Amino acid sequence: MRAFRIAYDGRPFHGFQRQPDVATVADALLSALRELDVPLEGDTPPGYAAAGRTDAGVSALAQTVAFEAPEWLSPAAFNSALPAHVRAWACADVPDGFHATHDAVERGYTYALYAPEVDRSRARDGARLLAGERDFHNLTPDETGTVRDLAVEIERDGPFLEIAFRADGFARQLVRRLVTLLEAFARGEADRDRIERVLDLEPLDGPEGIAPSPPEPLVLTEVVYPDVTFRVDDEAAASARTVFRQRHEQSRSRARAARSIRDGVAADIADQ
């Protein structure tokens, strides 16, 4: 059994988990294993499991997949059959019976909230109200696994609030709905009573519900396993740094183009 750390840009994908007729991260991984002639049982290698099922548009630094792998399958070898925006970069040999989903004791997500005018101290006040062991059933469509012991840290990085969430697991859309609630609190659009109502056992329905924030600023940044030490593959890590530096530069260029259009429209309006 071997576990692999996988980084990916989630924007081109309809989430991690396989779905019919749409591209997913799992499809990319399993297609690469087939191309590399890794032994499979049906569609997956023996023992195959992943740490998390990220939503459509969500990216990852530390997604983890584990399965029975041949000795030669290093992260660099894995990358040779993967698309450029999906990169293995570290691995660890793990015991027989290891399960990438169930053996994780903590997961971490980070959301980059563009909020130049939002007060960080008020956002932190909201985070303190949400932290601890809570039933988050009003912040997810899931009906099980809603009780979590949540930690939240918020730092200012230029115009962004970097919001880091840690827990033993996360229900679907929980992080993105937490971001919506935190942003509303930080802007003064929600108060302590609103947060307490969201955490109440009574369901929130219809217009009272909390919608998820956009998925693109969210990254799965950490998955923790007891007594598992990942070895960074230098070649694979260098490839990942190159790929994601290029994608970062491309994104900045697209943002610059959008800004030029915005400024040009504003100038034309001012001249009329």
UniProtKB/TrEMBL annotation:
Keyword Isomerase assigned: yes
Start and end residues of each stretch annotated as Disordered: 242-272
UniProt cross-references to InterPro entries, sorted A to Z: PsdUridine_synth_cat_dom_sf, PsdUridine_synth_TruA, PsdUridine_synth_TruA_a/b_dom, PsdUridine_synth_TruA_C, TruA/RsuA/RluB/E/F_N
EC numbers for this chain: 5.4.99.12
UniProt family annotation: Belongs to the tRNA pseudouridine synthase TruA family.
HAMAP family: TruA (MF_00171)
Entry function: Formation of pseudouridine at positions 38, 39 and 40 in the anticodon stem and loop of transfer RNAs.
Record's protein name: tRNA pseudouridine synthase A
Organism: Halapricum desulfuricans
Gene name for this UniProt entry: truA
